[in-house]
Design brief:
The protein is an alpha/beta fold. It contains 4 helices and 17 strands.
């Protein structure tokens, strides 16, 4: 709770991560300690060296998320709770290496991405999927009732929707570039109203 209060005053956990990586001496130690204290409170482990191209959208904050140091995460990515993005460092393993996640990816709860695989841009990975192979751009990875997985790749003109949508009490919004924008697409708004009545 203490780390959360301090981190929020400093602009959020990714701002603290940025400060820790840019600082030196005692400041570096303070920011690094704060970064890991915050994660301890949230039962997460996101290495301070993990590269993020932008601030990810974390719908449930940094809850039970593990990302290893050599992993690379693109911009405009959504990462839910209980996600593992893990390097495989056994040099004799055919999956040796760390995941590289593209831009505009939506990683649902309890997804595991392991080893030297590449996830393309505009990829939506549904809950409980395990990724160890490359996933092409503009794809959806779904888990079927029998536990098997299916990768569906769409043509470029049929862009996979990888935004995270939420209602702020007044209007529907979606994540974009580390912030929020209002949903103006009439078809989407109609669908939200049909299901949620808002």
């Amino acid at each position: 709770m203490i780390a959360r209060a301090i981190v929020n005053k400093l602009g959020g956990i990714f701002e603290v991560k940025k400060k820790a990586n840019a600082a030196s001496g005692i400041k570096k130690k303070i920011f690094t300690t704060l970064y890991y204290m915050y994660q301890y409170e949230n039962k997460s482990s996101v290495n301070i060296l993990t590269q993020f191209a932008g601030t990810p959208c974390l719908p449930h904050d940094l809850k039970a998320i593990f990302i290893s140091g050599p992993a690379k995460i693109g911009k405009n990515c959504v990462i839910f709770h209980n996600v593992t993005i893990n390097a495989i460092n056994h040099t004799d393993d055919e999956k040796f290496g760390a995941p590289v996640i593209g831009d505009n990816c939506y990683i649902s709860p309890a997804v595991t991405i392991m080893g030297g695989c590449k996830v393309g841009n505009f990829v939506r990975i549904e809950a409980n999927a395990t990724i160890t192979e490359d996933i092409p751009d503009n794809s959806v990875v779904s888990v079927l009732p029998d536990g098997s997985q299916k990768v569906t790749t769409y043509p470029k003109q049929q862009r996979v929707d990888t935004k995270y949508y939420s209602h702020n009490g007044k209007k529907w919004i979606y994540n974009e570039d580390g912030g929020w924008s209002e949903v103006t697409d009439e078809a989407k708004l109609k669908r939200f109203f049909e299901v949620y009545g808002k």
